[in-house]
């Protein structure tokens, strides 16, 4: 995904590349990662994980790490 964050001359090309990378990442999670988790986790672990993922209060915004801002070197 870092390759998508490189400043390019054409913003449209950058957005298309970002869309492609994000779509591929989501497909990987849906097809492979989630299936592997279901194979190794028991029902109790899946319930806890589901609860934690859906708990909006557990999300911590990280405003300190502005990874998208390019720093001068």
Strand-helix topology:
Elements: H1 2-5, H2 11-40, H3 43-54
What can you see in these coordinates?
With 73 residues, the protein is mainly α. It has a domain of 49 residues. It is built from 3 helices and no strands. The two termini are 21 Å apart.
Question: Averaged pLDDT, please?
Answer: 82
Order of helices and strands: HHH
Strand content: under 5%
Spatial extent as radius of gyration: 17 Å
Figure out the total of helices: 3
Tally of extended strands?
0
Oligomer designation: single chain
- The amount of helix comes to 55-70%
Structural class computed from helices and strand pairing: mainly alpha
Name the descriptors.
mainly alpha, about 70 residues, flat
A few lines on this structure:
The protein is mainly alpha-helical and 73 residues long. It is 63% helix and 0% strand.
